[in-house]
Amino acid sequence: MPQLTAHALTLATMARQHLLERSDFSVERVVADVVAVQAQHPPAVHLAIWNRLETVTTSQVAEAFRQGRLVRANLLRVTIHAARVEDHPWLLAAMTPTLRSARLDDRRYREAGLSPSDADEAVEDVIRLLRTPRSPREVREHLAARSPDPDRLWWALRHIAPITRAPTDGPWGFHGTDRYVATDTAPPDPSDMDAANEALARLVDRYLRAFGPASIADIAQFALVPRSRVRQALAARQSDLRNLTGPEGQTLLDVADGVLPDEGAEPPPRLLGMWDNLLFAYHDRTRVIDDAVRSLVIRRNGDCLPTVLVGGRVVGVWRIVDGLVEITCFAEQDERTWRALEQEAAALLTFLGDNDPPFARYHRWWTRLPQVPNQRRLGR
User: Fold this and answer.
1) Please, are residues 70 and 60 in contact by the beta-carbon 8 Å criterion?
2) In this predicted structure, what is the pLDDT of residue 220?
3) Residues whose CB falls within 8 Å of the CB of residue 96, separated by 6 or more in sequence, listed in order
4) Exposed / middle / buried, residue 246 (Cβ in 10 Å: 0-12, 13-18, 19+)
């Protein structure tokens, strides 16, 4: 098995994520190429797409949601993701065992006196209600007729049913309280594990094309599914894969035609938004972020700060302060790197335009960062 260097793995990741070179694809194509984009906070979706496309505006991203080409729903890692509309049904099918376990087996759900059958029996009812976008309050009021705890029942249903968040006219395509709407696809059959495993095999293929070469543990981490399910999915299509050896001698898997760029390439700096999938795609996160830096960037409550990539690795964080991009690096950077970051910062400010600064409500985390001299405000 060919052995890859750490740099080769970095380049493969950056290339497949459209971070080595920005692409000229459509908004929905680039989202599909990275499987899906973590999306609990709408500005994060816009930043993820901006980092990967040559030319894009915030209005183009918002329009992709309004036209239904992209949807926001609970999917990978039991977290809200933006996905291409045609990918949502099979992603939901692949994730159904995990989503059901995370909600219907949860102690809080059981202690509310609810059973899995309560949720299953309510799915079609709530889908009919959500043919028109509704607020959570409206859904809970509707469910009160059939459950003593409509809050907890709705908490489960919005994860296991084919339900998405309806876009609005807000500055990031979503604004204020979420409204929910049902899709046109049938809900996954929880007893049909063959369908779930077939969908997972498709997810594994897409993951390797977006993040490979990678290990079984990496795939399981990205989706939050048991490794046993990943092995089963891999066994069904072993002939389509190749084995490689990682820098530490570990076995890595890849699609047969996976891109491995020339090792002479140099990754450009990037300013990733909060919760970029790059930081959550691997069990071994040292591939993109050192453990010491990770403890500064990813907080215990799950918040992940906007990060600075240099050489394909996380070296710092950024935020918008007084109309400029404040970049804080945890180690010294040379002037050539700062000039490249200046160009990225200017492009970022152009992209943001008159929109409110993204992630401003998370600035409290900067008070807990170590004091470092490697901080500059860049842009206009």
Assistant:
1) no
2) 97
3) 160, 188, 190, 196
4) buried
Tokens representing residue 212 in the block: 């490979």
Extended beta strands in 31-146, E state = 37-38, 70-74, 80-84
Taking residues 254-276, what's their average pLDDT? 93
Q: What is the pLDDT of residue 1?
A: 67
Residues 340 and 268: beta-carbon distance below 8 Å = yes
Contacts for 253 with CB less than 8 Å, ≥ 6 apart: 208, 212, 213, 214, 215, 216, 219, 234, 241, 242, 243, 244
> What is the per-residue pLDDT across 95-111, written as a single tens digit (0 to 9) for each?
999 999 999 999 999 99
> Of 49, 59, 96, which Cα lies nearest the Cα of 74?
96
Q: Which of 224, 197, 218 is nearest to 101 (CA)?
A: 224
Residue 226 phi/psi, 5-degree rounding, is -65, 145
CA distance 252 to 213: 6
Q: How far lies 307's CA from each of 110, 278, 315, 331, 334, in Å?
A: 39, 10, 8, 14, 18
The whole-angstrom separation of Cα 94 and Cα 76 is 9
Whose CA is closest to 319, among 43, 52, 73? 43
Buried b (16+ CB within 10 A) or exposed e, 124-149: eebbebbeebbeeeebbebbeeebeb
- Of 66, 93, 94, 70, the closest CA to residue 83 belongs to 70
